[in-house]
Specification:
0% strand, DNA-binding, mainly alpha, homodimer, Arc Repressor Mutant, subunit A
DNA sequence: CGCATTTTTTGAACATGTTCAATAATTGAT
DNA sequence: ATCAATTATTGAACATGTTCAAAAAATGCG
């Protein structure tokens, strides 16, 4: 391993540890550099902005989420169960960062952010996040129209984004409300998605799928 | 009018004008103070953080949105039409700020923000925003179950938040995609909401309303 | 009007993200 | 090993949000 790889890894670990312990705001670049034993300028040689360090954290969390979800899916073939596993394991993966979640969210959304869930720069972590929901769908046996099934991973990811946003501002004990919402929403999806096969649902469903398709074009 | 009211108004106007012209990042407190003819410290006497100035902007935009929506509702009694009016007038009100929208969004969501749509400090602008959708619902004659009707303004506001988020990152010409999404979503709501009266929808609807009720508790 | 009190104003200083020219270290070829 | 080229490192300086003690101005009462 080259020295530079060493230095980069040192900065990354130091940043992630500090983000977890102290949150976004209290983790200054000066502090990271100091603890990593380098100069502030050197930290900028490796990571152009503080937000790029947040991206490292984001990647870490997504990996964790994917792993945990896979463990929780077990042998279940029911979409509601799988979805609940995906949602709750996501909340578990982000749990340690809840105290400073608004700070991370704000940083993530900043215009020059490397991390925005909606931006081009975050394609890898986003793909990982959507992969969780792809596996929710792939592993279920519920009868869902093919066209809906194709778009479902991303729809479920959007729902997860909503849940995450709720979680960020959830002050209940250990975010009990968010967990309850995750369970309830999973059950609701489990109820509603099979209804998509019924004839009366054809119109609204196609309307919605068209809408999503054109929004994505 | 006392001198202090004068000074506060001068700062507010200067900030809002600059936010519109230059966006969030290029509008520094030093620039605002300079153009208002005061010192930087004095600006902080009136507004504790830069975000409090963003709240003034937010209030202005919401007022504009409410006024525009009222004009656009006209004599229409159809929920899809009224909703479209509400959505599009909102996009019109925020239009001048699109170039810097991610910056404002990021600032809005910051932990210490006075502006977060989900925070206690923004109760007034949020109430105004929800009022738009209250008037969408109050003025329509579509048959919608009472319990859903009661929760609908806030649900529609959440949908509008989603639309706004889409709009922030919409790079299409004059945000044509967001406008098309607004139209399409309004039609979809117009199709789906009346279905809520049908017996088979009773289960999922109640499930959803329960979920929302418990999330809000 | 004078005066005590309160409010407003100021500008220097601070904190933190960021930049960059100069220097040091590393790398790869001979 | 030497050397040219490239990469990594540094620390001072800068930009911008924010703070605060001191001074100035405004206010209200007798």
């Amino acid at each position: 391993m080259a020295k530079s790889d060493d230095t980069r890894a040192k900065i990354t670990e130091t940043a992630i540890d500090s983000f977890r312990e102290r949150g976004y705001d209290q983790t200054t670049i000066r502090l990271i550099a100091d603890e990593a034993g380098i100069s502030v300028g050197n930290a900028y040689y490796y990571f152009p902005t503080k937000n790029h360090l947040v991206q490292e954290l984001y990647l870490r969390v997504q990996r964790d989420h994917l792993e945990r979800a896979r463990e929780e899916f077990g042998s279940s073939k029911d979409i509601a169960k799988r979805l609940e596993a995906a949602f709750l394991s996501g909340l578990d993966a982000t749990g340690p960062y809840h105290d400073s979640a608004p700070g991370f969210l704000s940083a993530a959304i900043a215009p020059t952010s490397a991390v925005s869930p909606f931006g081009a720069d975050a394609a890898e972590p986003r793909a990982m996040a959507i992969q969780v929901f792809q596996e929710v769908v792939d592993g279920c046996t519920n009868a869902i129209p093919a066209e809906l099934k194709r778009q479902l991973p991303e729809l479920l990811w959007l729902a997860y984004m909503g849940l995450t946003l709720f979680w960020v501002y959830d002050n209940s004990d250990r975010q009990a409300k968010s967990r309850a919402l995750a369970r309830g929403a999973s059950k609701l999806f489990g109820t509603v998605l099979p209804l998509a096969r019924l004839p009366f649902a054809r119109g609204p469903l196609n309307q919605m799928l068209d809408l999503i398709r054109s929004a994505r074009a």
